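> forwarded from #structure-qc
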């Protein structure tokens, strides 16, 4: 086999949450590159950083959105969405290099869009440079719409069509670029996989598979089965969620209307897959579960699993759930594809860059080698003497004071830097259970007032989260938290003890200030639903106790840093499976007076939702079956344990050095969660670069 070029890896992602990529003189007030909504997009950015620093050839491909994720303001406690015009701050986009010479056409049935690349260099500290390429759609007003917004509202057909166009647009531009470049350099179609491998970040770029087959058969004369085989040696798929509503399915009718050739290629792949299933002795229900096309819809995850050489989850538990539940039929017939790649974060951004004080302290204790090789941070464990722990507490105090000053300036809210900082920052979603934290705070508030909670160390609960614009319960939760902030902050009995702050416009730059300042990291998802979490890792690395459920990477965090140095509570994924059929939140409400009291704030008139009906809606979500089961995310089930755990860590905090030791052990054991480790694993096991 001819193999002149080393194999290079490409990361196709609909999101890249870069943040402030380049903090260089003169550009300090550059806006965040918020071309993403959360963990999946930030993971892509961390991977690029790690690959560049490890000298691995990993390039990114995505969309150059005109507007990033909306900017969030909070008015009267309600989220308001404002456009994020990231390119226009401080003189446009100084880092993207427009590549006229590399532009290409992407054809839809009704029009053709021009895909113009903007290249961003991703440079490691060693000078190794990879390229992140964002495609911008041009050529007509309808073409330009394609790269206007991240996640346009897809509740109606017009929005769905736009989403399909976006996904196909960047996938097809990238696949076309790679194949054409390969042939131009004298490569043969048959040795394409020896020179390229592609990681599909969730299902959003999965049209790339169909486009690859389409292009090879239609343009390069490859026979269909060979094209499928080449695709199967090239592409790999990462799953980031088991939530049914996020597993993409596209209406075949819509696909046919705007991408007729892709429609027929995907149908052909489905027929080809079904033949293979039959050869493997797979029948009936198993075929239905794995099928790509059932007559009405295309199931993108099934397409990705059938073609992908590798299928991975992003934390151990998540991968186990994929194998046992979500994709169990595929696991039965294709067990070798499945593997786990526990997520990671780049310590360069999430420690060195965002926490200079802690980094300098680590240098003093163990030397500076950890900056290049994060595994060396483990040596910190030998520095748990009282003097060292006092220094660590002083650093934490400093980061808390800095955050408090910033919050005062940005939000106008006062936080005592000597209080315990509980922080929960992440996308607002019911499964992430911000609502439970809010109810828990109300239970603590009541407990302080009625005297049942004594010796409570003053605490601040800090939240940051964006809610998808059309997600009513998420927006209601933001208002609820803000009302609780008002209630506990204006009550003379509690205001010195309890403080609640919801920070506006949580983004990467805010995260860089929040992660170093937490004492306690809230990771309280309903077990089994948070694929991994990566915020949990950032808090750990900056020295915080995880107050969390046995979910996602929390499980691996406590396995490494010890349950005794963190605080785990609530139902596990197996508990939830056991109770889910018979779970009755109304029974919990009837039987537990404290919970009943906390929940009553939704309806007792002490909190005001401004006549929106939001709080009634939240109450309904707990007590009535709607589009979901009553309390679908087991908030009331876990709430008593959450309150108890939150009070337990509050008590632990009183033992200053004991608490500092927990922080230290967490930091010392965080190296495993470096994306350097994760990217090395992808490179060795999947990409073979
Ligand atoms: C799907 C269909 C229609 C519209 C939008 C979507 C959609 C958009 C974004 C589905 C999912 C996302 C984002 C998912 C995400 O960020 N997942 C997170 O990925 C992290 C990195 O692996 C994990 O750590 C988190 O646990 C997971 O929630």
């Amino acid at each position: 086999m001819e193999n002149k070029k080393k194999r290079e890896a490409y990361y196709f992602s609909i999101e890249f949450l870069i943040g402030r990529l380049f903090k260089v003189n003169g550009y300090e007030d550059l806006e965040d590159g918020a071309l993403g909504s959360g963990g999946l997009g930030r993971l892509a950015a961390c991977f690029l950083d790690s690959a560049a620093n490890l000298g691995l050839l990993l390039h990114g491909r995505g969309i150059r959105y005109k507007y990033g994720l909306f900017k969030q303001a909070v008015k009267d406690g309600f989220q308001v969405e404002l456009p994020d015009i990231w390119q226009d701050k401080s003189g446009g986009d100084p880092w993207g290099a427009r590549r006229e010479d590399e532009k290409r056409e992407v054809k839809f049935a009704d029009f053709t869009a021009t895909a113009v690349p903007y290249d961003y260099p991703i440079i490691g500290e060693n000078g190794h440079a990879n390229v992140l390429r964002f495609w911008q759609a041009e050529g007509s007003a309808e073409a330009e719409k394609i790269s206007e917004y991240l996640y346009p509202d897809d509740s109606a057909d017009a929005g769905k069509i736009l989403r399909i166009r976006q996904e196909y647009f960047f996938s097809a531009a990238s696949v076309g670029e790679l194949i054409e470049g390969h042939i131009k350099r004298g490569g043969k179609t048959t040795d394409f996989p020896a020179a390229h491998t592609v990681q599909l970040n969730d299902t959003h770029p999965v049209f790339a598979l169909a486009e690859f087959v389409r292009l090879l058969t239609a343009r390069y004369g490859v026979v269909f089965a060979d094209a499928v085989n080449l695709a199967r040696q090239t592409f790999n798929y990462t799953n980031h969620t088991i939530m049914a509503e996020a597993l993409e399915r596209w209406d075949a009718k819509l696909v046919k209307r705007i991408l007729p050739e892709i429609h027929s290629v995907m149908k052909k792949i489905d027929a080809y897959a079904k033949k293979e299933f039959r050869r493997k002795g797979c029948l009936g229900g198993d075929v239905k579960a794995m099928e790509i096309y059932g007559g009405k819809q295309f199931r993108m995850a099934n397409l990705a699993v059938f073609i992908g050489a590798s299928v991975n989850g992003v934390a151990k538990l998540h991968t186990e759930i994929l194998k046992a539940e979500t994709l169990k039929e595929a696991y039965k017939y294709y067990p070798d594809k499945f593997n786990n790649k526990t997520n990671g974060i780049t310590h360069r951004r999430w420690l060195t860059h965002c926490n200079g004080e802690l980094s300098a302290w680590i240098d003093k204790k163990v030397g500076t080698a950890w900056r290049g090789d994060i595994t060396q941070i483990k040596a910190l464990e030998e520095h748990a003497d009282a003097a060292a722990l006092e220094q660590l507490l002083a650093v934490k105090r400093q980061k808390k004071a800095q955050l408090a000053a910033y919050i005062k300036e940005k939000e106008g809210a006062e936080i005592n830097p000597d209080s315990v900082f509980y922080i929960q920052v992440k996308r607002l979603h019911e499964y992430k259970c911000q609502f439970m934290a809010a109810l828990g705070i109300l239970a603590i508030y009541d407990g302080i007032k009625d005297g049942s909670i004594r010796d409570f160390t003053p605490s601040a609960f800090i939240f940051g989260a964006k809610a998808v614009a059309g997600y009513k319960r998420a927006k209601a939760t933001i208002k609820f938290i803000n009302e609780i902030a008002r209630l506990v902050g204006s009550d003379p009995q509690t205001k010195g003890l309890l403080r609640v702050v919801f920070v506006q416009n949580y983004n990467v730059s805010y995260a860089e200030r929040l992660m170093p300042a937490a004492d306690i990291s809230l990771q309280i998802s309903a077990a089994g639903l948070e694929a991994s979490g990566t915020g949990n890792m950032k808090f750990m690395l900056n020295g915080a106790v995880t107050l969390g459920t046995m979910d996602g990477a929390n499980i691996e965090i406590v396995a490494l840093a010890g349950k005794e140095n963190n605080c785990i509570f609530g139902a596990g994924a197996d508990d939830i499976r056991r109770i889910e059929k018979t779970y009755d939140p109304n029974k919990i409400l009837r039987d537990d007076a404290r919970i009943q009291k906390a929940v009553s704030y939704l309806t007792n008139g002490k909190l005001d939702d401004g006549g929106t009906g939001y709080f009634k809606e939240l109450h309904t979500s707990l007590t009535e079956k709607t589009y979901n089961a009553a309390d679908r995310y087991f908030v009331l089930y876990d709430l008593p344990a959450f309150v108890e755990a939150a009070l337990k860590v509050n008590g632990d905090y009183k033992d200053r050095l004991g608490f500092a030791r927990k922080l230290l052990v967490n930091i010392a054991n965080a190296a495993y969660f470096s994306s350097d480790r994760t990217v090395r694993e992808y490179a060795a096991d999947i990409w073979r670069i």
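QC bot note: Residues 37-40, 43, 151, 240-241, 246, 248, 314, 343, 530-534, 552 surround 26Q (CB under 6 Å). The chain has two domains: 8-343+677-687, 416-673.
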